[in-house]
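Hey, does this match?
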Amino acid sequence: MQQGTTYKLTLNFKDPNLEEEYREHHYVKHRGVARVILVAALFFIAAFAYTDKLLVPENFIYMRFARFFVAIPVTIATLVLSFLPTIRKWWDAIFSLFVVVIFSCFLLISALNNLEGILLPQKLTLVIIVTFFIAGIRFAFGCAVAIAVFSIYAVYILLTQSQYSLIEHSSLQSVVFLLIFFAVYGGYILEKYSRTEFVNRKIIDEERQKSEQLLLNILPQTIAEELKKQPGIIANKHKKTTILFADIVGFTGYSSKMSPEELVKVLNAVFSIFDYKVEEYGLEKIKTIGDAYMVASGVPDGRRDHAENIADFAIDIEKKLKDFNRKSGYSIELRIGIHAGDLVAGVIGVKKFSYDVWGETVNIASRMESQGVPGEIQVSEDFYELLKETYEFERRGTVEIKGKGPMITYFLRGKRVPAAQQRALDSH
């Protein structure tokens, strides 16, 4: 994954967008721990204040200033800033500055308490460990903190009279330097692992999204979710549904005149138009069978306007097909059949899942199409009864339907124009 590569020294991702994502992820992941550290720092800074007057009363006022006018205000300010979304970009720099200031206060209080170098290496190591491993400051800022803290410590040792000899100082400095080196190296490895994990998780998430999208291209979302929770047979009865079949007229003749590549290209272009319209109208594409296209409304989620949606879809794809013919030079016609009623919908089998529908409604819709007229939208009487007040129909008459016998059918012409609107149009 090319965008997952980093600069060796800073560990920043070479892809700026990925780097920005990582910084946001890193901030969200570590801000809680940082706040705990800040609250704990407030407690300990204030709690140990009572010892200042007992140990060195003559320097009490200076130590109080260091604690209550420097350390505590800086800690409170850093804590407040951690809740502001606008500082996320600068959070590592802010927290690093907090660490350096607090460490400087440690040194000042130690000097005022005449403690000189006692426990300073331990304090120094604690600061670095907190910075790198607990607060999760990014490596570049952690290095800056390490350099600043070590420099301040070295200056402090040089400027104060110490009980240690030069050799002891050198040994102590070496120990401190090694501790910092290993802390920095550990921080480097930790962040490298963190960034690798971030990229791996991102890849996994992207692949999971692709898999879920692929599943949603095969199954409705509610069915996909149900299948993920409990694999097995899914079958539900739906009472108010509408089924549409659309078939390309004379497709066999087209197949004999076109190359396989051109034939598939044309079929894909036509069905892609249907797919976009299915999504636009919130319908459910069931399947394609050769040159036939099957759509359902009211499954898997019921809807009151199931018949209206299918009617609008049928009228729309007829218009879009005419536009396609005009632009491409083809003369493709559709034969469309629609019926409304009850059906069973679900998923069966254990391999190559597909969402399907069964029942008399499906069979009649199929017959409405197969025994229809090219260029027409033939509908059953049941469908007609649902929309006769709002849509225009033309009675075809009684048609002998295979497997059902004689049935009265209609051709759908379009949406009915309201009387008031029609009168306004007629007046013009």
In short: The radius of gyration is 38 Å. The mean pLDDT is 84. The chain has two domains: 2-212, 231-427.
